[in-house]
């Protein structure tokens, strides 16, 4: 090894190399780096968690050095501002607006979001169901007390033109087959503007897309002649479901090439709440309040005088007549409305009024007074009757009879039709909640009703009656139309006064209890059938749940011969031409014997399919045109026990079976692979009806099968098979009229 | 969690000839090291080493280097380094000065090593300087000294006789 010792060494090179090495080594020792970051060289008590992306957490001495390091891999700059600035009230409002652009928020969204499950439907964020269990309980509430639902997602459109032009324009669009209670826009019932009408529009004649809508005409005084207004400009307001909005607009723009009509969306659209139930009258009377104290005082004085005079001598009716002449039109209109408003207390249910009648009121902001809870109808009725005088009773009886049979257009005149008033109301929300609370805190007795302090701040409101079922009036109520900006205040007041808020699921339930179809879940003839809540929410959940469960623990739909267990597949019925033979049945069942995933694929490809629907009164009135493939809507009630569920299959019974059922003999039939029954239709909504005490459903039957099996349909019996089993339930069917 | 532990070996390369080996690189040393491990211990040893074997630093002027290896294979790497005879067709001798768990302690030891070598150089220079001084002094003293000649006349010599 001593060989490798150098014999000659140059001092300069030796010293220079060693000094350089020493310098480098000492510099490395001083900087304690290695593989760690600069921030890790700090002692532990100076290190902070967010140093990696937030420079302000680093000691000042090291910021420059760390910025250089960060320059190579800069941290992601979050566009969010600091939490403090984000949570300021101005910014919160902007964030709400930003979020609501994608899916539009209603005015009462925040209130609903705290108490209900919200879902994205039709471009809006709507309340689907409450956090509480209210499926069965909503029937009780709707039958005895009252229930409230926010319908302001319905779009309102305004048409302005001459009366005759409007009638001719819409007569082309309206479906002539829209049920038995078919009424056009030009019907005399609606022309004066005192009643609301409903009908159906054909949006696409080829595909036969149909959608329901509601309309109101402009105000005409009751004395005038309707024929004089033929060539005068008039307005219509149309309410339509948002799923069919684009189709409507495209249709009307295509037809209105010469600007025959001015058709546009209403600016500052009013909100719409629907209150259902008998005590909806009480609820409204607690909330909607206007200054009839003056009239009250005058009336009381007059009545006292009259009673005194009656006891002595003659009645003095002439004095009242002379007083009415000197009063102005507005005062007389006010009086009439107050009398109408009071006479509503005499009425037991809103169904006893005329269908679609409209009342307009100028009402004080309910924020300015406390709303007391309304009693139920029966209690209020008895309490009211005790406190009435004899003269008042007679008056109200006369008025109530008038109202039930006649509804003059004076009751429906309102300022909501005016564009400028709506603007003013929106812009003039000067009296915000803060100001009202401030002023109330200064008073001795806050929140006491007194219109004298605020005579000019009155809000025009429209009240529209909605009809229910024709047997008992279940499902009847009032629609309240409120100008934009005041929805939340009215909503809160109505809820405090006793109306229970519900979501779309409960509303659907109440509609089926009345026997009517609910848009869009029961309307096959519109593409919104595939955008409905049952398709997007309910059927998807069920299918996901089914796929997650183990094969041995879930229903084997293949075995039961059900191809689309989660959503009705009407297109498969149209494909099979004749369903009578066994071979065809087998073919259809075997060809479509796929897994659930394939059935879902089938449904998604036929997204825009619509189906022709016809209405029928009797079996005898069926048309013999077998070429047109169409479906007929029916209501089904179970005969024996059993609840009829959604997506159930419908079959026609054989002669022997129908005889058995009519004679009330035992009927125990089960489905098997070699079954002779022919598939006829499906059920779209099914449930156990609490009003009837038996299973009830709404479904569709193919017209061809009805015509062929007319003999079997004489007893109007149908067999129902739910998707989770093979048992046939016998049921009676009737033709649906809506 | 169990950590992967390393060992860092501080080593010194000495060459037989005095030619400058600036062309040698870290990768070159790694290459020859791996070959010697394979020669002496086989492929199993290389597989066990794997990615842990690495040459961290090398100074061609001074000949100091630091090699990293896994803790379990330290002895094998040490041995293979000492048995390395030839690099780039030049004979050399490697001696390992220090083994540590961190590079930092290896650097500390490297500083000590260089300091000691510098001290040696310093002492050598001092010795050299002293020698030169001593010689200079010597030369000076020789020149100043002159011996008396008996056979020179006295006339040149001054006599300080007192008169009797």
Automatic annotation (TrEMBL), chain A:
Residues annotated as domain POPLD: 477-570
Acidic residues compositional bias, start-end: 314-331
Domain POP1 C-terminal stretches: 679-734
Annotated spans, Disordered: 66-93, 301-332, 577-601
Major place of residence: nucleus
Source organism, top-level taxon: Eukaryota
Low complexity: bias regions: 590-601
Name of a matching Pfam family: POP1_N
Composition bias, Basic and acidic residues: 301-313
Pop1 N-terminal domain mapped to chain residues: 81-159
Protein localization: Nucleus
Chain intervals with Basic residues compositional bias: 74-89
Entry annotated with the keyword Methyltransferase: no
Swiss-Prot/TrEMBL keywords: Nucleus, tRNA processing
Protein name: Ribonucleases p/mrp protein subunit pop1
UniProtKB/TrEMBL annotation, chain B:
UniProtKB keywords: Nucleus, tRNA processing
InterPro entries xrefs: Pop5/Rpp14/Rnp2-like, RNase_P/MRP_POP5, Rnp2-like_sf
Ranges in coiled-coil conformation: none
A Pfam family hit: RNase_P_Rpp14
Keyword Nucleus found: yes
Record's subcellular location: Nucleus
Region of interest called Disordered, as start-end residue ranges on this chain: 132-164
Residue ranges with Basic residues bias: 134-150
Family: Belongs to the eukaryotic/archaeal RNase P protein component 2 family.
Physiological role: Component of ribonuclease P, a protein complex that generates mature tRNA molecules by cleaving their 5'-ends.
Name of the protein described by the UniProt record: Ribonuclease P/MRP protein subunit POP5
């Amino acid at each position: 090894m001593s060989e490798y010792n150098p014999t000659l060494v140059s001092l300069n090179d030796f010293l220079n190399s060693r000094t350089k090495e020493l310098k480098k080594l000492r510099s490395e020792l001083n900087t304690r780096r290695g593989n760690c970051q600069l921030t890790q060289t700090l002692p532990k008590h100076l290190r902070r968690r967010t140093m990696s992306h937030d420079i302000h957490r680093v000691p000042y001495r090291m910021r420059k050095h760390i910025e250089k390091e960060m320059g190579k891999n800069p941290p992601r700059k979050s566009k969010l501002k600091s939490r403090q600035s984000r949570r300021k009230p101005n910014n919160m409002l902007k964030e709400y607006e930003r979020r609501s652009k994608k899916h539009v928020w209603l005015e009462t969204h925040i209130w609903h979001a705290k108490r209900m499950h919200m879902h994205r439907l039709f471009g809006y964020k709507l309340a689907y169901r409450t956090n509480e269990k209210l499926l069965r309980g909503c029937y009780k509430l709707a039958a005895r007390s009252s229930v409230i639902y926010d319908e302001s997602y319905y779009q309102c459109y305004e048409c302005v033109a001459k009366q005759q032009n409007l009638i001719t324009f819409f007569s082309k669009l309206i479906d002539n087959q829209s049920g038995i209670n078919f009424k056009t826009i030009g019907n005399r019932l609606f022309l004066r503007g005192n009643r609301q009408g409903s009908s159906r529009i054909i949006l696409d004649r080829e595909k036969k897309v149909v959608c329901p809508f509601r309309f109101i005409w402009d105000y005409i005084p009751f004395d005038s002649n309707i024929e004089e207004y033929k060539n005068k400009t008039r307005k219509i307001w149309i309410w339509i479901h948002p799923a069919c909005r684009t189709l409507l607009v495209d249709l009307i723009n295509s037809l209105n090439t010469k600007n025959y009509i001015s058709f546009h969306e209403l600016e500052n659209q009013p909100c719409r709440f629907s209150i259902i139930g008998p005590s909806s009258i009480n609820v409204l009377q607690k909330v909607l309040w206007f200054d009839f104290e003056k009239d009250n005082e005058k009336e009381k004085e007059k009545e006292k005088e009259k009673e005194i005079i009656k006891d002595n001598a003659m009645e003095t009716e002439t004095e009242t007549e002379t007083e009415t002449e000197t009063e102005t039109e507005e005062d007389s209109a006010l009086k009439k409305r107050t009398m109408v408003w009071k006479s509503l207390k005499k009425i037991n249910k809103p169904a006893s009024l005329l269908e679609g009648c409209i009342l307009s009121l100028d009402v004080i902001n309910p924020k300015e007074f406390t709303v007391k809870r309304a009693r139920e109808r029966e209690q209020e009725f008895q309490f009211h009757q005790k406190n009435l005088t004899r003269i008042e009773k007679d008056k109200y009886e006369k008025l109530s009879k008038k109202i039930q049979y006649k509804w003059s257009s004076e009751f429906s005149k309102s300022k909501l039709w005016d564009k400028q008033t709506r603007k003013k109301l929106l812009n003039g929300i000067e009296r915000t909640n803060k100001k009202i609370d401030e002023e109330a805190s200064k008073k001795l007795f806050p929140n006491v009703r007194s219109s004298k302090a605020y005579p000019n701040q009155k809000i025009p409101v429209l009240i529209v009656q909605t009809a229910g079922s024709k047997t008992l009036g279940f499902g009847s109520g009032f629609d309240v139309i409120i100008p934009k900006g005041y929805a939340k205040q009215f909503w809160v007041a109505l809820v405090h006064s006793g109306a229970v808020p519900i979501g779309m699921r409960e509303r659907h339930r109440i509609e089926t209890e009345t026997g009517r179809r609910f848009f869009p879940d029961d309307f096959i003839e519109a593409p919104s059938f595939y955008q409905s809540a049952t398709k997007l929410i309910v059927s998807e959940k069920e299918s996901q749940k089914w796929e997650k469960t183990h094969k041995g623990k879930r229903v084997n739909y293949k075995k039961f011969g059900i191809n689309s267990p989660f959503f009705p597949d009407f297109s498969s019925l149209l494909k099979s031409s004749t369903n009578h033979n066994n071979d065809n049945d087998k073919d259809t069942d075997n060809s479509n014997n796929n897994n659930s995933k394939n059935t879902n694929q089938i449904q998604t490809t036929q997204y825009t399919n619509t189906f022709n629907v016809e209405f029928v009164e009797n079996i005898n009135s069926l048309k013999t045109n077998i070429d047109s493939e169409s479906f007929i809507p029916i209501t089904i009630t179970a005969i024996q026990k059993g609840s009829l569920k959604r997506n159930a299959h419908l079959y026609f019974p054989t002669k022997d079976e129908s005889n058995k059922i009519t004679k009330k003999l035992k009927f125990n039939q089960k489905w098997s692979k070699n079954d002779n029954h022919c598939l006829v239709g499906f059920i779209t909504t099914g449930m156990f009806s609490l009003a009837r005490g038996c299973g009830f459903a709404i479904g569709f039957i193919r017209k061809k099968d009805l015509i062929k099996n007319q003999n079997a349909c004489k007893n109007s019996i149908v067999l129902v098979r739910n998707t989770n089993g093979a048992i046939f339930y016998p049921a009676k069917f009737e033709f649906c009229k809506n | 969690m169990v950590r992967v532990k390393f060992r860092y070996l501080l080593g010194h390369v000495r060459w037989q000839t005095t030619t400058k080996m600036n062309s040698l690189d870290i990768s070159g040393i790694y290459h020859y090291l791996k070959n010697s491990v394979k020669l002496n211990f086989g492929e199993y040893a290389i597989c066990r080493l794997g990615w842990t074997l690495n040459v961290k630093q090398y100074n061609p002027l001074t000949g100091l280097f630091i090699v990293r290896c896994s803790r379990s294979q330290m002895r094998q790497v040490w041995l293979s380094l000492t048995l390395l005879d030839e690099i780039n067709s030049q004979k050399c001798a490697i001696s390992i000065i220090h083994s540590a768990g961190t590079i930092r302690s290896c650097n500390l030891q490297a500083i000590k090593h260089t300091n000691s070598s510098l001290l040696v150089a310093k002492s050598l220079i001092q010795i050299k300087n002293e020698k030169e001084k001593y010689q200079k002094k010597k030369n000076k003293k020789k020149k100043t000294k002159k011996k008396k000649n008996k056979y020179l006349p006295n006339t040149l010599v001054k006599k300080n006789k007192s008169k009797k």
